[in-house]
Amino acid sequence: MVRPLQQQGIIMSASGQSLRTPKGDRIAIVAGLRTPFAKQATFFHGVPALDMGAMVVQDLIQKTGLDPDLVEQLVFGQVVQMPEAPNIAREIVLATSLPVKTDAYSVSRACATSFQSAVNVAESMLAGTIEIGIAGGADSSSVLPIGVSKTLARALVDLNKARTLGQRLAILKRLRFRHLMPVPPAVAEYSTGLSMGQTAEQMAKSHGISREDQDKLAHRSHQLAHQAWEQGLLTDEVMTAHVPPFKAYLERDNNIRENSELAGYAKLRPVFDRRHGTVTAANATPLTDGAAAILMMTESRAKALGYQPLGYIRSYAFSAIDVMEDMLMGPSYATPLALDRAGMKLSDLDLIDMHEAFAAQTLANVKMFASQKFAEEKLNRTEAIGEIDESKFNVLGGSIAYGHPFAATGARMLTQTLRELQRRGGGTALTTACAAGGLGAAVILETE
Amino acid sequence: MNKAKSAFSLDIREDGIGVVTIDVPGESMNTLKATFADEVADLMERVESSEALKGLVFISGKPSSFVAGADIRMISECETAADAESLARQGQALFDRLEALQIPVVAAIHGPALGGGLELALACHKRVVSDSPKTVLGLPEVQLGLLPGSGGTQRLPRLVGIQQGLTLMLTGKQLRPKQALKLGLVDEIVPQSILLEAAVKQALAGKPKARKPKLNLVGKVLEGPLSSVLYSKAREQAQKKAKGNYPAIDKIIDTVKHGMTKGMQAGLEYEARCFGELAMSPESYQLRNIFFATTEIKKETGASGTQPKKVKKAAVLGGGLMGGGIAHVTINKAKIPVRLKDINHEGIKNALAYHNKLLQPKLKRKIMRPTEVQKELLMLSGTLDYSGFKDADIVVEAVFEDLDLKQKMVSDVEANAASHTIFATNTSSLPITKIAAKAARPDQVIGLHYFSPVEKMPLAEIITHPGTSDGTIATTVEFAKKQGKTPIVVKDGAGFYVNRILAPYMNEAARLLLAGEPIETLDKTLVQFGFPVGPVTLLDEVGIDVAAKVAPILADELGARFRAPDAFSKLLDDGRKGRKSKKGFYRYDAKASGKQVDKSVYELFGISPANKLPADEIAERCVLPMLNEAAWCLQEEIIRSPRDGDIGAIFGIGFPPFRGGPFRYMDSLGIAHVVERLEHFAKTEGDRFKPCALLLDMASEGRSFYPKG
C-alpha cells in the first residue's frame, strides 16, 4: 500500500529509508536454503561450521541453477569462531564452486549475525557495488575452539622467544598442573559476567513472565514447527544433509518434539535459579549446529535472469542497549525503528517472526511491544509499538523448537517468513531478533 | 627451402653454463626423433670443443612438457630387427657421449619426462625437477611391448636399485616429484619459477660423485648375493597377470640382469639387441597400433566439422553403482559439478559414499589435499526433484532398464532442464531409438554407455539413433573424454557393439560348460588367451540375472545365432545371480579361501565335469563367435571402422591388447583362415558359427581390414 505512494514521489518521514539501488531496484531475496538444525553433538558432531556453511552455499547454487560466476560477493558469519579459518566467508568461496574472484568477508553480530550479513549484501547493492550476492551464517556447538589457560598461552609465546635452555626452564617453572587444563569457550558475557540464561531469568522476574506462559510458548513453538514439517512447508528450504563418511543423512531438524505435551514441560527444574527461577531447558533454545544462506539480487537482475524473488527487504534497523538489565530486549527497540523507516505500523504487518532465544525473553518483548509505559519511558514515543496478534506471530514456531545455530538463525527466519508470506498470498512481515551485547535487529520484508 | 627451426638450441650464459633448450618446432610436446641426430651431434661437438663451458643444463622450451618420449613412428618405419637395433644404438651412443662429458650436465625437468625423455635425463649427471603436478617421470615402454632402448635399462637400476628399477620398467608407472626424490631418481625439487636457476646452481657446483642406490638391509641382500631370487621373483610376479603373452617383460628382466652382472657396455649391447627384437614382435606391433588408434580418437570430435559445446554442469539420474561412478568421474576427472537425482535420499547417500570411497585413497596417498577432497565432495549435490536441472548442459540417465521409465525420464528432463540440455542414457540393452521415440527434442537424445566399474573401465560407447544431431554427438564425445574415457561412436542396435560381440562369446562358454568342461578350465583357458578374467567369472560379476534379461532381447532382434543355452532360469531359480547375491558359479561365502568354484552348480545341471577339449579349441570356440559378430557389426555399420571395433573390444571387454583387437586379430590370422574355421564349426556345432557376408567377401577377394604392411 505504501509503495505506490513512494513511487508517486511522496516524501517520507525524516527517518524513512529508501532501499533502492542507484538504478532504482529493490533488494530481492531470490532464494534461501539451510541445513537441518541438529542438537549439539548429534548429526553434525565433528562437522565444523565452515563445512556446514560450504555445504549450504554449494547446494543453494546447485539447487537454484545459478551460474556461480555471477556471484560477486559472499558475506558470511559465525559466532563461535574457528581459529584455523577466521574468515569463514572466504573459505566457503574457496571450498565451493564459486569462482575465486568472488569477494568475501565475515561478520559477527551474535545471534543476529545473518541479519547482519544479509544487510551487508543489501548495502553493497544500495551503494551500486554489486548486483548478486550470497549472505548467511553457520555455527557449530559441537566443534568448539577449546583453548589453553591464559598462563599457559603466555608461557608458550615466551617459550617461542626464549633462546637459552635456562630461559626455557624458567618459563616452564611458572606453570602449575591446573594451567595445563583445556579451557572451553566462555558461557558468560564478556562485559557482564552473566550467562544468557541468567539474563533470561532476570527478564522473567522483572516483567512477571510466568513459568506457565513460558512453557506454553515452548509447547506452541514445537507444535507449530512439527506441523510445518508434517505439512511439507519446509522441505524446499531445508536441504538434506549428507556428511562423510556418508553412513546416514539428516532430512529434518532433530530438536523438534513430535509429540509435544504441555504437561511434560512442567516437570523440568529451572536451570539458572533452582529456587525461584522459571527458565528451564525446555523453554529455552538448545545448543544447535547448522547453517543457512540466502541468495540476493537486485530486482531487475533477478528478473533478467528469470528468477521470481521470494520477496524484498523493505527496511531494516539495528539497536543497542545496556547489557546489565533486559539485555535481550533488542526486538522492542529495533522494531519501531524499522517500522518508521518503512513508513508502517505494526498493525500493517501480515506476519511477525521473533527469534525465541528464551520463552521468557520472547514474552517480555511481546509485552513491551504492547506497553504504553515502555514506549514512553524507553523509546521516547507517545504510542506503544502495538499489540501482537497471535495469529500472525511465529506462525511456524521459532528457535525454541528449531534450535538456534547462532549465526544461521537470521537467514532461517528471512527465508521461512518470506515463503510463508508467499503461501498467504503476499504482504509484509517483520523478522526480529535479540542478540548478545544488548543488540537488536529488525528487518521488514515485502513480497511482490 | 628454409632451414627448419632446430629443436635444440644452445645458449651460453655469462657464468659459463650452457643452456640447451629443447623445443621441437610445431609440436605441443617434445618427442625425440631420429632426424635430430645430426643436429644433436653438432651440438655435442660445440659443447665438447668449447673450453669456456663450465656446465650444461637441459631444459624444455615447452610450457608443460620436458620430453614426453621418443617418437614411436620411428619404430614403425624400421623394417628389420637390425634397423631397430641400430636406432637404439644411435640413441645409446648419443647419451653415452653426453654422460662422458667432463663438465657437469643437469636436466631441469618440468612436465612429463617419459621414455626417451627420462633416458636423456638419466644420462645427465643430476636431475632437478619442478614441484608441479604436471611433472611425472617414468619409462612406459613396456606398455608398447618394448623396453627402454637408450640406456634406460642400465642407468635406472644403477641409480635407484634393481628392485625399484624393475618395478618402474615392468609397470610403466609414472612417478610424481616427491616419489622420484625418495627413490633417488632426482636430486632436487624446486618451484618451477626457479627451475633453471636451481639447475644452473647444481651445474656450477660440479659433478657429483658416483653414488649407490639407497637400499635398506633387505634391499642390500636382495640386490647383492640373492639377486637371482630377486629376478625370478620379479618374473613370477609380472607373469602372473601377463601369462607369458608379453615378451617385453622377460626381455626387460633379462637385460637388467645381463647388464648388472656383465657390466654396462654388455648391458647396452644386450639392450639394443632386445629392443630390435621387441620392435619387430607382433605384440609390440599391436600395442603400438592401439597407441596410435587412441591418439587418433583423442583428436576426433565424433562428428566431423562440428565442435563440442562446453559442459559446465552435469546431472545424473539414479544414484546406484553406475550413477555414483559416473558422478565421480564427472567431478574428479572432468571437474564438472554434478546434480544427482534419485527417488530417495538413500540413493543419494550411496552415491556420495561411493564418491567419497574413491576419493579417500587419493587423500591418503597425498595426491589430493583435504580441502580438494572436500571441494569435490561438495561438487556432488543430491535432489529428489528436478531442482537445479535448469542449467545442466547434459543429463546422464542411469536408472533401471525399463523403457517406460526411461521415456518418462526423457520427458521429465525436457520439461525441467534447459532447451539445450542433452539427454544421455546409460542403457546397456534398450534401443536408443525407442528411448527417444516420444522425445520432443529427439536430436538431443543419445546413448552414453559406461562399463562397470565406471571409474576403472576406460571405454565409453556413444550410441546415436538416426535423429541424434552432430552437436549432441560432439558434446557427448567431449564430455566422455573429459571424464577420462576413450569414446567410440556406434549406431543404435541391440547390444550396441560391445555387449553384442560379448554375448556370443559368453553363450559359447556356457555351452562348453553345459557340455561338461570344468569352470576353472574355461576361465583359465581364456585368461591364458589374454582376457583379464574368464567368461564364467565375468558372468558372475556382471550378474546372471542381467545376462538372462539381455539374452532374449538380443535373440529377438538379431536372430537365432544369439539364442542362449537354456541355463539361466535354472540358475536364477536356485538364487544364483552371481557375486551380488553371493551365489553364482564361484563361492562368495566367507569360508571359501581364494577363488573356488561352487561345485553344487554342476549338480544343478546334472553334469560331471571333465576336461575333454584341448585348450586352443576351447579358446577358438569362444573367440570365433566374437570375431564373427564384430565383423557383422562392421557390415551393418554399427561401428564406423575396424579401428573403433578394436578399441571398443580392448577397452570395453579387455580383449587381449597384444592381439590388437578383433579386427587386427582376424587380419593376423588371415580372413580366409577365420572363415574356414567358422565354417568348420558351423558344420560340427551349428549355424550360429556361419561367417557373415562381409567375411566371406573379404576372404574370396583376399582383403584385410587394415591396409597390409
Automatic annotation (TrEMBL), chain B:
Name the PROSITE patterns on file.
3HCDH (PS00067)
Q: What is its EC number?
A: 4.2.1.17
Instruction: For this UniProt record, give its keywords in alphabetical order, as a comma-separated list.
Output: Cytoplasm, Fatty acid metabolism, Isomerase, Lipid degradation, Lipid metabolism, Lyase, Multifunctional enzyme, NAD, Oxidoreductase
One GO MF term on file is: NAD+ binding
- Domain 3-hydroxyacyl-CoA dehydrogenase C-terminal: where? 495-588, 618-703
Annotated pathway: Lipid metabolism; fatty acid beta-oxidation
Query: Which one Pfam family would you cite for this protein?
Result: 3HCDH_N
Highest taxon in the source lineage: Bacteria
Q: Provide the top EC class.
A: lyase
Domain 3-hydroxyacyl-CoA dehydrogenase NAD binding: residue ranges: 313-492
| Catalysed reaction equations from the record | a (3S)-3-hydroxyacyl-CoA + NAD(+) = a 3-oxoacyl-CoA + NADH + H(+)
For this entry, list what GO says about its biological process. Answer: fatty acid beta-oxidation
* TM annotation in the entry: none
Can you tell me which family this protein belongs to?
A: In the central section; belongs to the 3-hydroxyacyl-CoA dehydrogenase family.
> How is this protein named in the record?
enoyl-CoA hydratase
What species was this sequence derived from? Aliidiomarina sanyensis
